[in-house]
Amino acid sequence: MYFIRKATPDDVETIRNIAEITWWAAYGPILEKEQIEFMLDEIYSIKKLASQLTHDTQTYLLVVEDNKPVAFAAYSPRDEDPEINKLHKLYCLPETQGKGYGKILINEVVNKTIEAGKHTLDLNVNRYNKAKNFYEKMGFAVAYEEDVPIGKYWMNDYVMRKEL
Questions:
Q1: Closest CA to 125 of 164, 81, 87
Q2: Which of 30, 40, 140, 164 has the highest Cβ tally under 10 A?
Q3: What is the pLDDT at residue 50?
């Protein structure tokens, strides 16, 4: 049995742990080890996560299965266009993949987006990440490509969009 709950600042380590496990599984085949380590330290630092959760700059949702958090999503309005929500993060522990938690989390973010009176949900996905196929099945389509610098590395992404 599972349920979804909004994450709190007390969940920083939980989010970091899920990210650590899922990033190696998702990006190990397509990114260098040093880049993964850098990105995890940059994006999932305790300070950054705590700030996002404390100041509600990103809303994090956790899937809890049998009292254990196993997946999370994070979303917020886009900085450059607050009428569009952006799904920043969606990660499920490898052992839970195939249980539908990614779909459940996307549907929950879609519902929250509609409740906020918005009609567009964007996300970025690495151009070589097989998750692109999953997002297409969930109704997202490539809107454009972008290359985002993070430190000395680049995130070579598709921006995918779903109209609600």
A1: 87
A2: 140
A3: 97
CA distances from 53 to 25, 58, 85, 115, 139 (A): 25, 7, 17, 20, 28
Tokens (6 digits) for 138: 């969930």
Q: Do 91 and 19 contact (CB within 8 A), yes or no?
A: yes
Residue-wise pLDDT for 76-109, tens only, equals 999 999 999 999 999 999 999 899 999 999 999 9
Show the tokens assigned to 3. Answer: 């349920």
Distant-in-sequence, close-in-space partners of 154: CB < 8 Å, separation ≥ 6: 147, 148
- Nearest Cα residue to 93 out of 37, 4, 24: 24
CA dist 141 and 158 (Å) reads 9
The encoded tokens of residue 84 equal 């569009």
Residue 160 has a pLDDT of 98
* Cβ atoms 62, 4 nearer than 8 A: yes
Low-confidence ranges of the chain (pLDDT < 70): none
> How far apart, in whole angstroms, are the C-alpha atoms of residue 4 and residue 12?
16
